[in-house]
Amino acid sequence: MPILLTSPASAAPATMTARRVGVIDMARGVALLAMALYHGSWDLTYLGLANFDLFGDPLWLAARTGILGSFLILSGLSLVLAAEDGIDRRRFLRRFAMLALAAGGVSAVSVAMFPDSPIFFGVLHHMAVASLLGLALLRLPWPVLLLLGVAVIALGETVALPLFDQPWLRWVGLMTFEPESNDYVPLFPWFGGFLFGMALGRLWRPGPTLAPGGMVGRWFAWAGRHSLAVYLLHQPVLFGLLSLLAMGIGADPADIRSFQTSCVATCTSSGGEMERCTATCRCVSDDLNRAGLWSDFIHDRLTADSSRKVDGVIQSCGNR
Known about the structure:
InterPro entries: HGSNAT_cat (IPR012429). Keywords: Membrane, Transmembrane, Transmembrane helix. Residues 20-236 form the Heparan-alpha-glucosaminide N-acetyltransferase catalytic domain. It contains 12 helices and no strands. The protein has 320 residues and is an all-alpha fold. It has 2 domains: 22-246, no CATH class; 253-319. The longest helix has 25 residues, at 22-46. It is elongated. The two termini are 36 Å apart. The relative contact order is 0.15.
């Protein structure tokens, strides 16, 4: 699941000796809401409850870019503002460790749930690396940070080298193909957004009056202050609730829909009748699910014994 696609990972793990800026917390809270809506749309599509073209529709692609970019800009901005009075090394390391552990946890869960598209360098991984790189660039003037951001984005969008196709370098970006991952946020071009935020932090000094007002503003600010926790919890809750809904109304998840389409196309191209092909393919997916073989079948993890069982299911469905 695209765990976005984004994450907030709050600010980069910088010192928090500087005061919090309410308007930044509120902006991060608004971005969290946008992210939750995007993730909910992905969940609905994956579970067969809707059919949003998240990876083809220009509007959805722009939404993803805007949401992720807003978090990166806010994080770069927060790093600069938080470091105005110096870096609290102990607090920085603690925050960095939280990010790294959260990123590792997301990767582990994604491997278990989506082995064909695991998250190996998603937004949390990016935030951890960006925070370290940002420390080295803290004292640069804003024009240099801005130019570096433009250069990172330009390189990420125009350069593709086979060298970076190697698994251990894919976190950098600059690949010749898009890897299968539910949340891929490589250094190039996305670190450019973080640098833009740092440049903004050099230019802008928010005053103490910039605080959220009203109940809604305070709720957004609260979410922004706890953005890492909100990020880690919102998607499991959304996905779990929508999964229950999908099961309740009998909706087919994405992998079953994909199998049905491919299976029926293969069957009819071999001379089978559409109605019979549809029934046979449905029988196969249903029986494999009941036998506990579906996940291994769809992810090509069958053993010799389970392959024989799958062949038996296919033969049985074909004879009905």
